[in-house]
Amino acid sequence: MTRRKQPKLKPCPFCGEMPEVINLTDTLIQVYCVNMGCPVHVSVRVGMADIPSSSDARAVAVQIWNTRKG
Ligand SMILES: [Zn+2]
Question: How far is the CA of 64 from the centre of ligand 1 (A)?
Fold first, then answer.
């Protein structure tokens, strides 16, 4: 396993809570806002099939989370 620089996870843009990164299934990673009272309840899903190396899936999901606008 190679260590990669993981992008820093940003807080939810709508409520400021720190999101959680989970493996939804063996091939699906989800980043989502854990705040039940969040007005938007943001969640981002990344399928490992879309990513060249599965070890990058988490980093890609975090990247998408960080750059999404809503
Ligand atoms: Zn939120």
Answer: 15
